[in-house]
Known about the structure:
Elements: H1 4-10, E1 27-28, E2 32-37, E3 40-45, E4 48-51, E5 54-58, H2 62-76, E6 85-90, E7 93-97, E8 100-101, E9 104-111, H3 114-121, E10 140-150, E11 159-160, H4 163-168, H5 174-197, E12 200-213, E13 219-224, E14 233-237, H6 238-246, H7 257-265, H8 279-297, H9 309-322
Antiparallel strand pairs: 1-2, 2-3, 3-7, 4-5, 6-7, 8-12, 9-10, 9-12, 10-11, 12-13, 12-14
Amino acid sequence: MLRREHFINQLPHTLQSIELPFLGDKIAGKVRDSFIVGDKRVLITSDRLSAFDRILTTLPFKGQILNCMAAYWFDLTRHIVDNHLIAQPHPNVLITQQVKIVPVELVVRGYLTGSAGRDYEAGRAVSGVMLPRGLKKFQRFETPIITPSTKAEHGQHDEPISVEEVLSRGIVEEQYWREICRIALELFEFGSAKSRERGLILVDTKYEFGLLALADGSKKIVLADEIHTPDSSRYWMAESYQDRFDRGEEPQMLDKEHFRRWLISLGYMGEGTPPAIPDEMRIELAWRYAEACELVTGQPLEVNVGPAEDAIGLAVKATLASGTL
């Protein structure tokens, strides 16, 4: 049984970064470090925590939790769209197909919260979408909306962009973009229904897609990066949502939104020097991530306290040498 002591004891061993010289040059992302091996990509999901496009600290077991949830959802959504996952030789490792990432992230939103809520309160459009007046904070939309953003370089901020602007600027070919938007909405509808079965609300989520080159010269759309994790999604507890909404209270959250709000309360939104993140906050966030994982998958999360670097290297080596991929 998972206990808070596990998180406390793991604080000195969180996976900040990893070097695997036998794989060649590392490509460092916000959370994942990756290595290209032929037509495959080895993704090492670290314990790094980002907010406002800045890496701020690490959380115990965060990488393992993200991979656990992503693998669960990748498997569950294959009937909607293929994904890039091939194997998971270690809790922190995903071996994937090498795909060309579409340079636009799709955020599908079902409720008024987060950056959309902040834009709405300021009277601004949300990625080109003008929402009706009179909405309340945390209110459910009649139908989910897509709010894309451009994918910024590491260390830069993603920029909101409208669905129409993606096409007018030629960022994504129309034949792929229309289908990607359709798939994103279907994934969100499916994820919302499954989450409800687990007593959760999938509030909003980010999807990334890639294009996989096929032997006949055509390209296939595949789901990439991750899906429905607490890093890319907001989850609320369903049972208490309506009562809290009617009383004007915030929902019970199982994501990092309350961490973003804590940063905002200290005057930090990605610019300047970030505040120090206390261990109590790191443990609380990690616990919420773990709770979301167990609720979503219906399985207990099993963790091993201690450094993971050596085990990761051995697992990747063995899998690549096995010839089974």
